[in-house]
Amino acid sequence: MGETLQGSATMPQPQPLSASHIGSFAYLTVKDRLPVILTRVVDYLYREKDSLGNNYGKAAREDCKKVIGRCSQLKNEMQTNKDLLPLQAHPDPSYPYDDANIWNRYLENYIRVTGVAPKWFTAPWLYVECYMYTRIHESLYLCNVLKDFDPFMDQKRNALIDSKEAIEALAVHVLSLCGRISTFSQEQLKQHVIKLIEISLWGNRCDLSISGGADKSQDSDVLLLLDKLQSKILVNNSESLWQLLVALPEDQRDIVLVLDNAGFELVTDLCLLAFLTEAGFVTSLTVHPKIRPWFVSDTTHSDLTWTIEKLRETGGSAGVLASKWQSYISNGRWKIVNNKFWTLCHDFADMKEIDPELYSQLSKSSLIIFKGDLNYRKLTGDLDWPTTTSLEHTLRGFCPAPVLAIRTAKGGPVVGLAPGVSERTAAVTHDWNISGEYGMIQLCTFS
Fold first, then answer.
1. Do 125 and 78 form a contact (C-beta atoms < 8 A)?
2. What's the confidence (pLDDT) of residue 380?
3. What stretches of 108-187 adopt beta strand conformation (E)?
4. What is the Cα–Cα distance from 408 to 233, expressed in whole angstroms?
């Protein structure tokens, strides 16, 4: 970890966003949104403790009480701006994703560098928000029965089920495209790829952590909205992305997808990758989910497998498409890889130091797609960059392979904008950078 606690690069950089700025989105997140998320976890476990007891055994009821107590304590620590505490190691020494020592080293280094203990309203926002979800996970893995339980599981699954009509409409479209690939001209193929990238972008609006866990399903056919939403894309490097894809040698079409939200967004991502696979632009895909419940709606490995199975059971075009995804996984063209780096507080400029093996693996890919706000915050260090700063500059040396960032702006930095764009957008929508109304498709090739 760099001495600045903000990445390993040495170039001058702004301060990290934090809740110390009263009225900022970071402040409102720590003051309001995060306590609401903790309250929802507590309420859910209290309401479902009998059901969980029936499913997992009566010891689960006692586990519920323990988790409720730990999360209630965590909420009190947050609201009274207490010091962030060290994490307890996972009780199972064979657990492969125990990262308490990494978190505790970060905490120790923070105190050594700054001279003070990190507090909820003064430490970097990225750090404290990731820390909260890690503490939620700690409250579970210290249990006997519920150690692997996901308290956000029902919310994520309901979000998918409530989006079934939009998913079916998208599946009909994608299957039709896949069946006609051989008939498309190069220009037609390009336009279909770009449309599916835009669909993946707008799928990112369905983020449960932003709404505090309230319903964020997709209840309309996103295909009908694309033309209207075109002007809302503030940076659109789709043309450059297309040029990159068509220039890739046939033996170097290895794509990495670092996932964001489960539910409708996950479906849009898999639709995009399925079409790219069928069209021959992807020969190998590596998908990175989260290894623990994370930011309410982030996709875990079990979310991914459940989504595919649920859609296969549902039938229709969505079921056919889900079977296609499963076949890619079964035959090895798509690989699912778990790595604990994605659920640390470190931003990606620290990856070479914290997880050099992961950085080396990513360096072998032809393109890395990062979905969503949290990945964007970690790409840019969650620093207070001017909006006209280039994306490449904000990456601070993170350059294993070409990077494609796809997100709707729901908090954190926005970079890579042309001069005047942020001012003109703010004049139309004052909360443009947190509302999810505006999106970015940004490619960095480091050339």
1. no
2. 98
3. none
4. 9
